[in-house]
Amino acid sequence: MQIIRMLRHVAVARGAVQRPLRSCWMSVLPVRCLGNSSSQIPENASFHSAASSEADPPRILITGGLGQLGVGLANLLRKRFGEENVILSDIKKPPNYVLHRGPFIYADVLDYKRLREIVVNHRITWLFHYSALLSAAGEANVPLARALNITGLHHVLDIATEYHLRLFVPSTIAAFGSTSPRNPALDLCTQRPRTIYGVSKVHMELMGEYYYYRYGLDFRCLRYPGIISADSEPGGGTTDYAVHIFHEATRRGKFECNLKANTRLPMMDVSDCLRATLEVMNAPAESLSMRTYNISAMSFTPEELAQEVRRHLPEFQITYHVDPMRQAIADSWPMNLDDSNARKDWGWRHDIDLPELVTKMLNFHRSDTRVAQTN
Ligand SMILES: NC(=O)c1ccc[n+]([C@@H]2O[C@H](COP(=O)([O-])OP(=O)(O)OC[C@H]3O[C@@H](n4cnc5c(N)ncnc54)[C@H](O)[C@@H]3O)[C@@H](O)[C@H]2O)c1
Ligand SMILES: C[C@@H](O)[C@H](N)C(=O)O
């Protein structure tokens, strides 16, 4: 870090710093590329994004916000920073309840100019980049996954750098592959995934870190496990079974699982995931010894999850009809993540383990079923 700062200092002094043009390199910039920034990168560039305070809250944009995680994140951030300071965006049409809870805007991350306009017009200071095509959906449409997960990311990186945003992009257990250590996977280890989703997330981790060292972009990233949420549907991942099982258990008393009974994967309740996201964004820059952290909570197999469900619903039955594509993906992912760096650096702790998760999910779906029956 010290060496990089020194090199940057020398380069700046010589006026020789190059900046990225969205997809190529040049030393003289047209106005549209990272061009507003002063011609020199400040010495303390790593710390120049807006911090949060009660008096001066960040102005936040969430991309891809109508998926499994975005609405919950917006709720959490609005409680903390005020309803008007958090803008949810997506290319999907928002349901009414989303519109009633705070600002929503159409934003396609593939439209660089419009995205830049939004950041400027709404004076955005923090950006949570959630748009992505997940593991199973990505394998079903590789060109779209490549465009959304890689080109979309490049747009976000350039805009975040140009306007000195603090940028959060989630990574995933999918960023590991079959040659990574599986129990546990470390923050720094071999990463050779073989899904377009995993490859694009490794690319994202490296690009974010590169922009941090090269341009001082305040990039922060967590590798999420499979996330379990009650009131939002997953968008085409390999861990989706662990969300769907609760819906089916309460409605039909049985569930057909598309992964093998003994497939162990890291998982996390959505409340822990979103709290971790806010905590790492709020962490003082000096406390972060790295820019991409594993976070971990629990790890279970479909059979173990079914057993826990049976403690509440003794008649519950699980059967297995394995999807070979999803199974191959799951078999290449770690069974556990080592998150000791997150725990040490910024005090990460998970609150919810498997028994609490199952109680919470079943309570939600039982009351949801009762409401549906009375309507
Ligand atoms: N849900 C999980 O278990 C999990 C685990 C690890 C990491 N993550 C990461 O967290 C983030 C959010 O995940 P999620 O589960 O909410 O995803 P999701 O698939 O449910 O939602 C993604 C959203 O992106 C939107 N989108 C698609 N194309 C777009 C475009 N061109 N411009 C803007 N938005 C577009 C979709 O409409 C969708 O609402 C993703 O980056 C994902 O990789 C999720
Ligand atoms: C693990 C995560 O990235 C996502 N839920 C998926 O299965 O694709």
Automatic annotation (TrEMBL):
Give me the reactions it catalyses. L-threonine + NAD(+) = (2S)-2-amino-3-oxobutanoate + NADH + H(+)
Residues forming the NAD-dependent epimerase/dehydratase domain are: 60-295
User: So what does this one do?
Assistant: Catalyzes the NAD(+)-dependent oxidation of L-threonine to 2-amino-3-ketobutyrate, mediating L-threonine catabolism.
**What are its E.C. numbers?**
1.1.1.103
Q: Name the enzyme's class.
A: oxidoreductase
CDD domains this protein is in? TDH_SDR_e (cd05272)
- A single GO BP annotation from the record? L-threonine catabolic process
Q: Which pathway does the UniProt entry assign to this protein?
A: Amino-acid degradation; L-threonine degradation via oxydo-reductase pathway; glycine from L-threonine: step 1/2
Family annotation (Gene3D superfamilies): NAD(P)-binding Rossmann-like Domain
A single MF term (Gene Ontology): L-threonine 3-dehydrogenase activity
Q: What is this protein called?
A: L-threonine 3-dehydrogenase, mitochondrial
Q: Which organism is it from?
A: Ictidomys tridecemlineatus (Thirteen-lined ground squirrel)
